[in-house]
Amino acid sequence: MKRHLRNLKTLVKPYFRQIVLASVFLLILTVIEMAFPAIIRQVIDVGLKGGDQRFLIVAAGLILGLGLIKALVNFREQYLTEWIAHHVAYDLRNRLYNHIQRLSFQYHDHMPTGQLISRVIEDVRSLQSFAGHGLVELARIVILLVGIGILLFSRHPVLAAIAISPLIPMVLLTTDFGKRVGRLFLAVDNTLGELSSILQENVVGVQVVRAFAQEKYETDRFDQTNRKLFDRQITVVREWAKVMPSTIFLVTLGTILILWFGGQMAIRGEITVGELVAFNSYMLLLANPAQQLAWLVNAAGEAYAGLQRTFEILETEPDIQSPPNPIPCPVFRGEIQFERVSFRYKQSERPILRDINLKIEPNQRVAIIGATGSGKTTLVNLIPRFYDVSEGVVKIDGMDVRQMDLPSLRRQIGIVLQTSLLFSTTIRENLAYGRPDASEEEIIAAAKAAQAHEFILELPQGYDTVVGERGVTLSGGQRQRIAIGRALLMNPRILILDDSTSSVDTHTEHLIQKALSTLMEGRTTLIIAQRLSTVKKADLILVMDQGRIVEQGTHHQLLALDGLYRQIYDLQLKNQEELEDDLLTQPIDLSRVNFRSRNSLE
Ligand SMILES: Nc1ncnc2c1ncn2[C@@H]1O[C@H](COP(=O)(O)OP(=O)(O)OP(=O)(O)O)[C@@H](O)[C@H]1O
User: Fold this and answer.
1) pLDDT-derived band at 583, boundaries 50, 70, 90
2) What's the CA-to-centroid distance between 353 and ligand 1, angstroms?
3) What's the whole-number mean pLDDT along residues 29-42?
4) Region of residue 214 (phi > 0: left; psi between -120 and 50: alpha; otherwise: beta)
5) Cα separations (Å) of 304 from 9, 117, 120, 185, 279?
6) What's the pTM?
7) Looking at the domain assignment, is residue 531 inside a domain?
8) Is position 578 within any domain?
9) Cβ-count burial of 155 within 10 angstroms (0-12 exposed, 13-18 middle, 19+ buried)?
10) CA of 560 to the centre of ligand 1 (A)
11) Pocket mutation for ligand 1, best pick of 378, 542, 591 (most atoms within 8 Å of C-beta)
């Protein structure tokens, strides 16, 4: 709790001046509200009793003047509190987004995307709505309660005690509700996160759902979580509905008590009629905010849950960041070394990479092959520090990558994956994603080298065509060429490629191969190889099996070894004729070869 209040303080601190000003406005408003019953009392006791018309006119003028001031101050106060709330939400969304950008892959592996989205949007919204309207109302209630309490007790302590007495169970009721509601809202928010995860997964994976005709299953899954959300929300409403009528009843009880006891006192002449009316007006002044108390506690609970969930993200230290005093990264020569590297994902029981020793010379082309799940992707992911080694060290040009400045390390490593993500913006901006300062000539040159220039020109708005959800849909081959252009423009010293191309026609395949060759020139390149042609051309081939590099060398050296590589190769050679035809057209998926079957071959 203390920690969360401290967090809240860090959020509102920049707006301290505005908060003070809003509080002053609030105080003025409340004082004006409390002045009205006092004026009415004077009107009844002095004006009406003495039949003094001038007194009535003065009182009416006073009420009119105060009413005008109240309207003006009210406008300023409402504007200011909303302004503060929106600024706090704006800052929080930015802080969250910046932090999420810095969190490691390890974190993203286990945090569902939908949960993150729901925290940045929904939890911030609940915080914002409480920070605006809620906090002000709460402050108003406190000021009113204290102010009216002092006024009533100073005039007539006995009647004040009678009038205020129903407020005691009301406060007890709402505090009890307040204790429970935070927990209930946390459950609601978590389920909302689950629901957005399912939605997000289904929208992204719509093709898979349709292809497997699993619409019914997915609809049921969504319905189940939606029902859970509904049930949890209804629980909150039920709890709230229990408290709400009780508070309304208790306020009404206050008025009844005043009329009953106060009325008798007035008959006995112990208080004036004006005082009785003023007492009742003060109670009515409290009625509205008191009824809102349950709503406020509700909103506070929701905001508290939001605060907990958003700060859970903000308090997560990124596992992977630049060291405090990073070694400045000069332009890499491109030598890569793995020394006794082992790696285990946080969740995995066994090491995924074991005792990897490897030296790659600058500008070498390295092909990595191995069965699916043998650790190829994991191995290359250690170079740009998407994950950090569990044991051993990865070095570039003799320096441990963990000692380098992270952005300058990653800027020198280009990555082209099989399914390259493009952003929903123009082709030009997608190409210049890593180099926003690139000139038009540079962008076009990169697109030409990536064999993308021609098809870009054929698009409706050329380089200004928006891709993705808001614009045209590009084919797999076109997307990959844009991704190659994007990497080319970065001019990285080290390149990581996935050379598989999802079924494209011969011509596109040829264009992609040409683009990749241009991209690889003069750079250290690691290719997760799916094609025999790529493997044959590599300076060094790494054969991976169950997290280890079991063989390494050139095509001929490895053939001569007569080991696993030979077996893979022979398996392909059996279909020699077919392969000859397909070599430039169809990717030969080496990862699909059953490496384990070598035992049966022996
Ligand atoms: N983020 C992750 N968290 C936990 N385990 C993972 C993660 N990514 C991969 N693995 C596991 O690590 C092992 C190696 O995966 P990796 O993706 O490196 O294999 P690969 O050789 O690239 O496979 P493929 O050819 O199918 O892409 C697999 O058993 C996989 O289940």
Assistant:
1) very low
2) 10
3) 88
4) alpha
5) 13, 18, 15, 8, 36
6) 0.73
7) no
8) no
9) middle
10) 30
11) 378
Q: How many CB atoms neighbour CB 396 within 10 A?
A: 24
Angstrom distance (rounded) from CA 593 to CA 568: 7
Domain-located, residue 543: no
pLDDT at 297 over 60: yes
Please state the separation of Cα 397 from the chain's center in Å. 36
The DSSP code for 473 is P
Domain total in the chain: 1
ipTM of the complex model:
0.96
Q: Closest ligand 1 atom, CA of 109?
A: 1
Expressed in angstroms and rounded, the spacing between residue 496 Cα and the centre of ligand 1 is: 16
Atom of ligand 1 nearest to the CA of 387: 1
- Under the banding of pLDDT at 50, 70 and 90, the label for residue 536 is confident
Which atom number of ligand 1 is nearest to the Cα of residue 379?
Answer: 18
62 located within any domain: yes
Closest CA to 585 of 507, 474, 482: 507
Residues with C-beta less than 6 Å from any ligand 1 atom: 109, 345, 347-348, 352, 370, 372-378, 591
Distance 346 CA to ligand 1 centre (A): 13
Q: What's the CATH number where 20 sits?
A: 1.20.1560.10
CA pair distance 390, 370, nearest whole angstrom: 22
- Range of the structural domain that residue 186 is part of: 16-314
pLDDT one-digit tens code per residue, 60-106: 899 999 999 999 999 999 899 989 999 999 999 999 998 888 888 88
